[in-house]
Amino acid sequence: MSKFVKIPLVLLGTVLGFFVVTFTVYFFNLDMKATSLLAPFLEKWYDHLERKQYI
Amino acid sequence: MKTVQKVVNPVRRAGEQSPGKIYDPKLKVRARREWRGVKDTFYDYTRWLYLMSVLGRFIIVPRNVKGFFRYRWMMSYLFVPHGMDKFTVGLRDEALRLAHTSFNFVIADVTQAIANCFRGDRRVGNDKAYSDACVVTDENSMVTFMMGFDTKKVHTILREVPTMFASNIFHQFNVMHYLDIAQQYGISGDVCPMPEAEAGISIDDDFCVLGCCAVQNNTTCDGSLMGNGIIAKRLEREYGIPTFQLATPLRHKEPDVMDYAAQEIKNAIAFVEEHTGVKWDWDVYFRAAKRVNDATRCRIAQLEINSTPYPQFFGAAFSLYNDTNYMGNSGRNADFVKIDHKLLALAEKGYREKRMYAKEYRHRAIVWGVQPQYVIDMLYWLVQCWGVMPLTDMLSVINTDMIAEEDTPENREQAYRDMAMLNMEMIMRNHTHGGYKVLLDDLWELCEKMNADMVMMWEHMSCKALTGMHGMFEEQARERGIHIMWVSHDLCDPRVFTRSAIRDQVSAYMRTVMREEPLDPSLENIPDNEAY
Predict the structure, then answer these.
(1) CB neighbours (10 Å) of residue B435?
(2) How far apart are CA B357 and CA B360, in angstroms?
(3) Are B46 and B66 in contact (CB under 8 A)?
(4) Which residues of B66-93 are buried (b: 16+ CB within 10 A; e: fewer)?
(5) A20-50 residue pLDDT tens
(6) Which regions of B97-201 does DSSP assign to beta strands (E)?
(7) Residue B68 contacts by C-beta under 8 Å, 6 or more apart in sequence?
(8) Rounded Cα–Cα distance for residues B524 and B526 (Å)
C-alpha cells in the first residue's frame, strides 16, 4: 500500500479509535463512576493528615 | 390572583424525552449521560472533552498534584464533569450552549485561581516572589479596589472561592467536615453555613497560605463578620499577613454614606500600594471601567430578553457567571468581554427562534432570597418539571448604572464613588442589606417589569437578614395577587434539608395551592440525595 494511502488510513483509524473509546467513557459516565469509587480512599487519606487545628 | 398567558412549545425535544431516567439511587453520580439527539449530544461530548483537557492540564503540574493531596476540598474538583452534568439536564440547542459557554469559562477561571493559590502557597509551590505580589481577598468581596492595579504586577487571590464556594457546587457533602470542625470549636450551628464553613477551613488549617497582605469586607452578614474574625486572626498572628478591614456601609441607598464609602476605598487602595509596592494606575482603572460598563449593558440585555415570553439565559449558569464577572473580575480580565458578547448572541438567537426550556411555561417567577449551593441547579428542574419559568434570581439583579469611564480629573474623584457604589451594591448585600426598599419594593417592581405572576422565595433558614421579613412578603404578595412559594434550605448543609426535601416543598405547593400536575412526572422524585 502506498504511503499516501496508508498515512490517512492510520490517521482516520486513530481518530475513530479515540472517538469510540472516549465517547463510550462519556456516554456511560465511566469517568465519574470510576472517580466516585476513588473518593472513599481519598477521604481516608485526608483524615490521616496531621493539621494544626485551633481557633 | 395575577395570571400570565401559558406558552406552549410547538417543537418536540430532540433525543430522549424524560431526563429522570438518568438517575440511579445506588450511584453517587448519574447512571449515564443524556441522549440529546445527534447534534447536541456531540456538542456536549466535545465540551466534556474540553473540560477533561482543562483538568488534565491542571494536574500535570507537579505542585498541583502536591496541593491535591494536601487539601481536602480539592476532592470536589474530581467531580467537575458531574457538576457540569447537573447544569445541563434536559437542555438542548441555545440553552445547552449558554450553559456550557458560561460555566465552562467559570470552571477554567476557578482552575486558574487554584493554580495561582498553589503557586504562591507556602506549603505547596512556595514561589515567594509570586506570593509577595498577591493580595488575598474574601469570597464575598468585590474587587473594585484592585481595578487600577496592573494584573501583571499584582495578583488578586479570592482564596475562598475555590476552597469553599465553587467546590460545594461540585460535591454537596464537601463542606460538612468543615462545619463539624467549626462546631467542635464552639461556633453555634445556626450560623450561616457559608462563613461557618470558611471559618472551619481556617480552624482546620486547610487554606492555602500566601500573599503580602489581605483585604476583608464586612459582607454580607453577622456570620460573615464572625468568619472573617477567625480567618484574620490566623492570617495576621500566625502567618504575618497584614489584613485590612474594608468597612462598607450597609445602608447603601442613603446618599450620605457615599463620602465615607469612597474614603474606605481610598484607604484600601493605599493599603495595597503600601504592601505590594505597586502604584495605582488610572489607565488600567479606566480600561477596566469600560469593561464593567460593557458587562452591565450585556446583563441588562439578557434580562430584557427574559422579560419576553421566551427567556433564554437564567438559572445557575447565569447566576454563577454573573458572580464571577461582576464580583470576582470587576473588569480586570478582558477575556470576559468576548464571553459576554458570545452569550448575548446565543440568547438573541434563541429568542429569535423562540427556543423553550420545557413543553410549556405555565408561570413566570422571580426567584428571591439566597439559593442553596448544593442544589444550585434546581431552577432547571423547576421549569422542566412544573413549567415555572424562573425569569431571574435575586443574586443576578445587580447594578444597572454606568460608571465613569473617561480619564478626566473630575472622573478620577468620581471613580472612588463608583467603586464604592459597586462595592456597596455587590451581589447579595445589595438586597439583603439596605432595608425594606431593596428587599421588598425592588421585588415587586421586578415582578411588574418582567411580568411575573409568582415569586419563589428561597428561605435560607440560617439567614437572619431575610427571615425577619417573612410576614411582610406574605402580606404584600397577597395585596398584589402574586403567588409566593416558600422553599426552605440551609445553603451548604444538605443534612438540614436534603435535595428532595427542597424539591418536595415546590411539588407540594404546585399540587395543593396551584392544583397542577407536573409536566414531566419522571423528574418529580429524583433519587439524588446521596449523589455528589
Answers:
(1) 14
(2) 8
(3) no
(4) ebbebbbbbbbbbbbbbbbbbbbbbbbb
(5) 999 999 999 999 999 999 999 999 999 999 9
(6) 134-137, 155-158
(7) B59, B74
(8) 6
Would the CB atoms of B28 and A38 count as touching at under 8 Å? Answer: no
Check A27 against B33: CB less than 8 A apart.
yes
Given a contact cutoff of 8 angstroms between Cβ atoms, the answer to whether B360 and B8 are in contact is yes
A15 interface with B at CB cutoff 8 Å:
no
Contact B205 A39 (CB under 8 A): no
Q: Where is B216: in which H helix or E strand?
A: strand B213-217
Residue B375 lies in a domain: yes
- The DSSP H or E segment spanning B270 is helix B258-276
Determine the residue type at B196: E
In a domain, B531, yes or no: no
Using CB atoms, which residue from A22, A39, A54 is nearest to B203? A54
The total domain count for chain B is 1
No. of H helices and E strands in chain B? 22, 10
User: C-alpha grid cell for residue B310?
Assistant: 421566551
DSSP H or E segment with residue B488: strand B483-489
pLDDT tens digits along B467-510: 778 899 999 999 999 999 999 999 999 999 999 999 999 999 99
Give CA–CA dist B489/B498, Å, rounded.
8
Substitution target in B22, B35, B45, B226 with the highest count of A β-carbons within 10 Å is B45
Report how far residue B458's alpha carbon sits from residue B471's, in angstroms, rounded to the nearest whole number: 14
Do the interacting molecules here have an ipTM over 0.90? Answer: yes
Q: How would you label B476-512 residue by residue, b for 16+ Cβ within 10 Å and e otherwise?
A: bbeeeebbbbbbbbbbbbbebbbbeebbebbbebbee
Please give the residue range of the domain that contains residue B446: 7-523
Distance CA(B360)–CA(B344), nearest Å, equals: 23
Distance CA B54, CA B107 (A): 9
Is B528 a member of any domain? no
B295, B325 contact by CB (below 8 A) = yes
pLDDT digits over B347-405, tens only? 999 999 999 999 999 999 999 998 999 998 899 999 999 999 999 999 999 999 999 99
The helix (H) or strand (E) run that includes residue B95 is helix B93-120
B349 domain-assigned: yes
As given in the structure block, the three cell numbers for residue B219 are 459582607
Identify whether the C-beta of residue B162 lies closer than 8 Å to the C-beta of residue B74.
no
